[in-house]
Design brief:
- The protein is of the alpha+beta class.
- 34% of the residues lie in helices and 17% in strands.
- The strands form 2 sheets. It has a 6-stranded antiparallel β-sheet with strand order 1-2-3-4-6-5, with helices on one face.
- A hairpin with an 8-residue loop joins β1 and β2.
- α5 packs across α6.
- The radius of gyration is 22 Å and the shape is elongated.
- The relative contact order is 0.11.
- The mean pLDDT is 91.
């Protein structure tokens, strides 16, 4: 895979995508996701080669950079989130495609879905704080968003939001679960002790379980 046409065709093979040249410069051709309009693939020619900018998570960034000399920190973009692939023929097609696919997955993976997936990882017998759920979901700064998402829980049977407590181990108010004792009852059914509306985080905190989200 060495031509822009091949790359753009692959990028456009993903659902709900479209091509755009936003800078009134035909050298810059992007592939975005419909709805959010977020770009996951940037293409441009530089130093005689087609370059691609793709998004990567914290673990993949260094992995790809170490695997191939022609994968470098994102040019003209945040180097903590983007890589540049120089299409000089040294990076195998399957690796290029995998990096593009990973970028698409990151851009289309909503924070709310990450929160729900993180909560699903809290094992029976453990609780997590809002901040811990935010960190498990990939962004420790969105603790407030965790609370909002859990109050709108679309699938309580499979998303155990009752296992989430505040930073002091305190349970949510009665409104959150439809009754003053509902959360406590469900936690006790998990084998967790609840005393005066609080859980001992040192004993039942999720850090005692070996789980990883991102």
């Amino acid at each position: 895979m060495t031509t822009r046409e091949e790359v753009l065709a692959y990028g456009l093979s993903f659902p709900d995508t479209y091509q755009e040249a936003p800078f009134h410069d035909q050298n810059w051709q992007l592939v975005r996701v419909k709805g959010s309009k977020k770009a996951f693939l940037w293409t441009y020619e530089r130093n005689g080669y087609i370059n691609l900018n793709v998004k990567a998570d914290s673990e993949s960034l260094d992995f790809w950079r170490q695997a191939f000399e022609s994968v470098i920190p994102g040019w003209h973009q945040n180097k903590e989130h983007w890589n540049t692939i120089i299409l000089d023929g040294s990076v195998p097609d399957d690796a290029v495609k995998q990096m593009i696919a990973e970028s698409y997955d990151i851009v289309t993976y909503s924070p709310t879905k990450r929160i729900y997936d993180a909560v699903k990882k809290i094992p029976k017998g453990c609780v997590a704080t809002y901040g811990q759920v935010a960190e498990l979901a990939g962004d420790r700064k969105m603790a407030r968003a965790v609370g909002n998402a859990l109050h709108k829980n679309p699938d309580p049977d499979n998303i155990p939001c009752y296992r989430v407590v505040n930073s002091k181990g305190e349970l949510a108010g009665a409104f959150a679960f439809g009754g003053a004792d509902v959360q406590a009852e469900r936690l006790r059914a998990d084998g967790i002790e609840v005393e005066n509306g609080r859980v001992d985080l040192k004993k039942y905190g999720v850090e005692n379980a070996n789980i990883k989200m991102m």
